[in-house]
Design brief:
alpha/beta; Rossmann fold; 7-stranded mixed sheet; two-stranded antiparallel ribbon; 18% strand
Length: 282
Protein backbone atom coordinates (compact mmCIF):
# COMPACT_ATOMS: atom_id res chain seq x y z
CA UNK A 1 0.00 0.00 0.00
CA UNK A 2 1.47 3.35 -1.05
CA UNK A 3 1.66 6.19 1.48
CA UNK A 4 1.09 9.89 1.02
CA UNK A 5 4.87 10.33 1.00
CA UNK A 6 5.27 7.72 -1.74
CA UNK A 7 2.61 9.31 -3.94
CA UNK A 8 4.03 12.78 -3.38
CA UNK A 9 7.47 11.63 -4.54
CA UNK A 10 6.10 9.71 -7.53
CA UNK A 11 3.80 12.58 -8.50
CA UNK A 12 6.68 15.06 -8.43
CA UNK A 13 8.76 12.79 -10.66
CA UNK A 14 5.81 12.32 -13.04
CA UNK A 15 5.29 16.07 -13.43
CA UNK A 16 9.02 16.77 -13.78
CA UNK A 17 9.20 14.25 -16.60
CA UNK A 18 6.44 16.19 -18.36
CA UNK A 19 8.23 19.51 -17.87
CA UNK A 20 5.66 20.98 -15.50
CA UNK A 21 7.20 24.00 -13.77
CA UNK A 22 7.46 23.84 -9.95
CA UNK A 23 6.61 20.15 -10.06
CA UNK A 24 6.92 19.58 -6.30
CA UNK A 25 4.56 22.41 -5.41
CA UNK A 26 2.15 21.34 -8.16
CA UNK A 27 2.17 17.79 -6.77
CA UNK A 28 1.53 19.07 -3.26
CA UNK A 29 -1.39 21.19 -4.42
CA UNK A 30 -2.93 18.36 -6.46
CA UNK A 31 -2.69 15.87 -3.61
CA UNK A 32 -3.95 18.39 -1.07
CA UNK A 33 -6.98 19.04 -3.23
CA UNK A 34 -7.61 15.37 -4.01
CA UNK A 35 -7.35 14.33 -0.35
CA UNK A 36 -9.02 17.46 1.13
CA UNK A 37 -5.92 18.18 3.21
CA UNK A 38 -3.85 21.30 3.71
CA UNK A 39 -0.30 21.11 2.35
CA UNK A 40 1.17 20.93 5.84
CA UNK A 41 -1.13 18.01 6.60
CA UNK A 42 0.46 16.01 3.80
CA UNK A 43 3.69 16.02 5.78
CA UNK A 44 1.94 15.45 9.10
CA UNK A 45 0.39 12.32 7.53
CA UNK A 46 3.41 11.41 5.40
CA UNK A 47 3.33 7.70 6.29
CA UNK A 48 -0.44 7.22 6.04
CA UNK A 49 -1.41 4.60 3.43
CA UNK A 50 -3.88 5.71 0.78
CA UNK A 51 -7.02 3.76 0.01
CA UNK A 52 -7.69 2.57 -3.54
CA UNK A 53 -10.40 5.20 -3.88
CA UNK A 54 -7.96 7.95 -2.86
CA UNK A 55 -5.32 6.62 -5.25
CA UNK A 56 -7.85 6.67 -8.09
CA UNK A 57 -8.69 10.34 -7.47
CA UNK A 58 -5.00 11.30 -7.19
CA UNK A 59 -4.09 9.47 -10.40
CA UNK A 60 -6.98 11.03 -12.33
CA UNK A 61 -6.03 14.58 -11.33
CA UNK A 62 -2.33 13.97 -11.81
CA UNK A 63 -2.97 12.61 -15.29
CA UNK A 64 -4.90 15.73 -16.23
CA UNK A 65 -2.13 18.00 -14.97
CA UNK A 66 0.48 15.92 -16.77
CA UNK A 67 -1.37 16.61 -20.03
CA UNK A 68 -1.08 20.34 -19.38
CA UNK A 69 -4.53 21.10 -18.00
CA UNK A 70 -4.24 24.08 -15.64
CA UNK A 71 -4.53 23.31 -11.93
CA UNK A 72 -7.33 25.86 -11.58
CA UNK A 73 -9.55 23.89 -13.97
CA UNK A 74 -8.76 20.65 -12.16
CA UNK A 75 -9.63 22.21 -8.81
CA UNK A 76 -12.64 23.98 -10.34
CA UNK A 77 -12.31 27.31 -8.56
CA UNK A 78 -9.87 30.05 -7.58
CA UNK A 79 -9.72 32.73 -4.91
CA UNK A 80 -9.98 36.24 -6.35
CA UNK A 81 -10.08 39.46 -4.33
CA UNK A 82 -12.01 37.91 -1.45
CA UNK A 83 -14.30 35.90 -3.72
CA UNK A 84 -14.40 32.23 -4.64
CA UNK A 85 -14.71 32.04 -8.42
CA UNK A 86 -15.66 28.82 -10.22
CA UNK A 87 -13.77 28.30 -13.47
CA UNK A 88 -13.90 25.85 -16.35
CA UNK A 89 -12.42 25.75 -19.86
CA UNK A 90 -15.36 27.96 -20.90
CA UNK A 91 -13.76 30.99 -19.17
CA UNK A 92 -10.30 32.38 -18.58
CA UNK A 93 -8.60 31.72 -15.27
CA UNK A 94 -8.45 35.07 -13.40
CA UNK A 95 -4.92 36.48 -13.36
CA UNK A 96 -3.02 38.39 -10.70
CA UNK A 97 -2.99 41.39 -13.04
CA UNK A 98 -6.78 41.42 -13.14
CA UNK A 99 -6.88 41.32 -9.35
CA UNK A 100 -4.59 44.35 -9.38
CA UNK A 101 -7.04 46.08 -11.74
CA UNK A 102 -9.86 45.47 -9.24
CA UNK A 103 -7.69 46.84 -6.45
CA UNK A 104 -7.09 50.03 -8.45
CA UNK A 105 -10.83 50.47 -9.04
CA UNK A 106 -11.62 49.86 -5.36
CA UNK A 107 -9.07 52.50 -4.38
CA UNK A 108 -10.60 54.97 -6.86
CA UNK A 109 -14.17 54.40 -5.65
CA UNK A 110 -13.52 54.50 -1.91
CA UNK A 111 -15.23 57.46 -0.31
CA UNK A 112 -17.58 58.10 -3.24
CA UNK A 113 -21.35 58.02 -2.84
CA UNK A 114 -22.22 54.94 -4.89
CA UNK A 115 -25.90 54.65 -4.00
CA UNK A 116 -27.79 54.21 -7.27
CA UNK A 117 -24.66 54.45 -9.44
CA UNK A 118 -24.22 51.95 -12.23
CA UNK A 119 -21.12 49.96 -13.20
CA UNK A 120 -20.89 47.75 -16.27
CA UNK A 121 -18.39 44.91 -16.61
CA UNK A 122 -18.14 43.91 -20.29
CA UNK A 123 -16.40 40.77 -21.58
CA UNK A 124 -16.97 39.53 -18.04
CA UNK A 125 -15.99 35.87 -18.49
CA UNK A 126 -16.26 34.23 -15.06
CA UNK A 127 -17.63 37.49 -13.67
CA UNK A 128 -14.71 37.90 -11.28
CA UNK A 129 -14.31 41.67 -11.75
CA UNK A 130 -17.94 42.72 -11.44
CA UNK A 131 -18.64 40.27 -8.61
CA UNK A 132 -15.60 41.43 -6.62
CA UNK A 133 -16.60 45.08 -7.05
CA UNK A 134 -20.20 44.41 -6.01
CA UNK A 135 -18.94 42.56 -2.93
CA UNK A 136 -16.64 45.48 -2.10
CA UNK A 137 -19.38 48.08 -2.69
CA UNK A 138 -22.86 46.64 -2.03
CA UNK A 139 -24.49 50.01 -2.80
CA UNK A 140 -23.15 49.91 -6.36
CA UNK A 141 -25.47 48.58 -9.07
CA UNK A 142 -23.46 46.16 -11.19
CA UNK A 143 -24.33 44.64 -14.56
CA UNK A 144 -22.14 42.22 -16.46
CA UNK A 145 -22.15 40.94 -20.01
CA UNK A 146 -20.38 38.48 -22.28
CA UNK A 147 -20.99 37.37 -25.83
CA UNK A 148 -20.60 33.67 -24.95
CA UNK A 149 -23.60 31.94 -23.32
CA UNK A 150 -21.37 29.47 -21.45
CA UNK A 151 -19.53 32.39 -19.82
CA UNK A 152 -22.82 34.04 -18.88
CA UNK A 153 -23.95 30.83 -17.15
CA UNK A 154 -20.72 30.65 -15.13
CA UNK A 155 -20.88 34.33 -14.18
CA UNK A 156 -24.45 33.90 -12.94
CA UNK A 157 -23.43 30.86 -10.90
CA UNK A 158 -20.49 32.77 -9.43
CA UNK A 159 -22.74 35.65 -8.42
CA UNK A 160 -24.93 33.20 -6.50
CA UNK A 161 -21.87 31.45 -5.06
CA UNK A 162 -20.63 34.74 -3.62
CA UNK A 163 -24.00 36.03 -2.51
CA UNK A 164 -24.07 39.17 -4.61
CA UNK A 165 -26.98 40.64 -6.54
CA UNK A 166 -25.81 41.47 -10.05
CA UNK A 167 -27.40 41.22 -13.49
CA UNK A 168 -25.62 39.23 -16.20
CA UNK A 169 -26.50 39.78 -19.87
CA UNK A 170 -25.55 37.91 -23.02
CA UNK A 171 -24.60 40.03 -25.98
CA UNK A 172 -21.89 41.61 -28.09
CA UNK A 173 -20.26 44.50 -26.18
CA UNK A 174 -22.89 47.26 -25.75
CA UNK A 175 -25.78 45.43 -27.43
CA UNK A 176 -27.47 44.54 -24.09
CA UNK A 177 -27.25 48.18 -22.95
CA UNK A 178 -28.84 49.98 -25.90
CA UNK A 179 -30.20 53.41 -25.00
CA UNK A 180 -28.61 53.46 -21.53
CA UNK A 181 -25.54 54.96 -19.88
CA UNK A 182 -23.36 53.96 -16.94
CA UNK A 183 -21.27 55.92 -14.46
CA UNK A 184 -18.44 53.39 -14.31
CA UNK A 185 -17.19 51.00 -16.95
CA UNK A 186 -14.67 48.15 -16.79
CA UNK A 187 -13.60 45.73 -19.50
CA UNK A 188 -10.97 43.02 -19.79
CA UNK A 189 -11.40 42.20 -23.47
CA UNK A 190 -9.53 39.76 -25.70
CA UNK A 191 -6.28 41.53 -26.61
CA UNK A 192 -3.79 38.87 -27.70
CA UNK A 193 -2.78 38.93 -31.38
CA UNK A 194 -2.88 35.66 -33.30
CA UNK A 195 0.91 35.84 -33.64
CA UNK A 196 1.42 36.28 -29.89
CA UNK A 197 -1.11 33.55 -29.18
CA UNK A 198 1.19 31.01 -30.80
CA UNK A 199 3.88 31.94 -28.27
CA UNK A 200 1.70 31.47 -25.18
CA UNK A 201 2.32 28.61 -22.78
CA UNK A 202 0.94 25.26 -23.93
CA UNK A 203 -1.55 25.03 -21.08
CA UNK A 204 -3.06 28.38 -22.10
CA UNK A 205 -3.24 27.57 -25.82
CA UNK A 206 -4.59 24.08 -25.33
CA UNK A 207 -7.08 24.71 -22.55
CA UNK A 208 -8.24 28.32 -22.16
CA UNK A 209 -10.89 29.69 -24.56
CA UNK A 210 -9.39 31.13 -27.75
CA UNK A 211 -12.27 33.59 -28.23
CA UNK A 212 -11.65 35.14 -24.80
CA UNK A 213 -7.96 35.66 -25.54
CA UNK A 214 -7.45 36.59 -29.18
CA UNK A 215 -8.60 39.70 -31.04
CA UNK A 216 -8.04 40.76 -34.63
CA UNK A 217 -6.06 43.76 -35.87
CA UNK A 218 -3.03 42.76 -33.83
CA UNK A 219 -5.10 42.49 -30.66
CA UNK A 220 -6.69 45.95 -30.99
CA UNK A 221 -10.06 45.04 -32.56
CA UNK A 222 -12.18 45.33 -29.41
CA UNK A 223 -10.42 48.52 -28.27
CA UNK A 224 -11.16 50.10 -31.65
CA UNK A 225 -14.84 49.41 -31.14
CA UNK A 226 -14.71 50.74 -27.57
CA UNK A 227 -13.00 53.93 -28.75
CA UNK A 228 -15.98 54.60 -31.02
CA UNK A 229 -18.83 53.34 -28.84
CA UNK A 230 -17.86 54.01 -25.24
CA UNK A 231 -18.46 57.79 -25.42
CA UNK A 232 -22.08 57.04 -26.32
CA UNK A 233 -22.64 54.92 -23.20
CA UNK A 234 -20.63 56.61 -20.43
CA UNK A 235 -22.24 59.37 -18.38
CA UNK A 236 -20.65 62.80 -18.13
CA UNK A 237 -17.99 62.62 -15.45
CA UNK A 238 -17.88 58.86 -15.88
CA UNK A 239 -14.80 56.70 -15.50
CA UNK A 240 -13.60 53.65 -17.40
CA UNK A 241 -10.93 51.05 -16.71
CA UNK A 242 -9.57 48.43 -19.11
CA UNK A 243 -6.95 45.74 -18.95
CA UNK A 244 -4.53 45.92 -21.88
CA UNK A 245 -1.63 43.97 -23.33
CA UNK A 246 2.08 44.59 -23.00
CA UNK A 247 3.24 47.46 -25.23
CA UNK A 248 -0.27 48.61 -26.17
CA UNK A 249 -0.31 51.82 -24.15
CA UNK A 250 0.90 54.42 -26.64
CA UNK A 251 -1.28 53.06 -29.42
CA UNK A 252 -4.36 53.21 -27.20
CA UNK A 253 -3.60 56.78 -26.14
CA UNK A 254 -3.78 57.69 -29.81
CA UNK A 255 -6.79 55.51 -30.53
CA UNK A 256 -8.99 57.13 -27.84
CA UNK A 257 -9.34 60.68 -29.13
CA UNK A 258 -8.11 63.33 -26.64
CA UNK A 259 -11.08 65.51 -27.60
CA UNK A 260 -13.47 62.92 -26.14
CA UNK A 261 -11.71 62.47 -22.81
CA UNK A 262 -10.71 64.66 -19.88
CA UNK A 263 -8.04 62.14 -18.84
CA UNK A 264 -6.45 59.07 -20.40
CA UNK A 265 -3.72 57.26 -18.48
CA UNK A 266 -1.71 54.08 -19.06
CA UNK A 267 -0.54 52.29 -15.91
CA UNK A 268 1.82 49.35 -15.48
CA UNK A 269 1.69 46.06 -13.62
CA UNK A 270 4.17 44.71 -11.09
CA UNK A 271 6.46 43.57 -13.89
CA UNK A 272 6.60 47.07 -15.37
CA UNK A 273 4.47 46.23 -18.43
CA UNK A 274 1.61 48.30 -19.83
CA UNK A 275 -1.45 46.65 -18.27
CA UNK A 276 -4.20 49.15 -17.44
CA UNK A 277 -5.89 51.97 -19.31
CA UNK A 278 -7.92 54.58 -17.43
CA UNK A 279 -10.33 57.09 -18.99
CA UNK A 280 -12.42 59.91 -17.55
CA UNK A 281 -14.79 62.01 -19.63
CA UNK A 282 -15.81 65.64 -19.24
Amino acid sequence: MKTIGDILTLSTQYLEARQITNARREAEDLLSDALSLKRIQLYMNYDRPLTEAELTVCRERLGRRGKGEPSAYIHGEVEFFGCTIAVSPAVLIPRQETELLVDKIVTALKGENLEGTLLWDLCCGSGCIGIALKKAFPALTVELSDIRPEAVAIAKANAMKNGVDVTVHQGDLFAPFAGRRCRYFVCNPPYVSEEDYQQLAREVRDHEPHQALVAGDGGFAIYARLATELPLYLEKGGKAWMEIGTGMGNHLLGMFSPTEWKRSVVERDYAGHDRFFFLENE
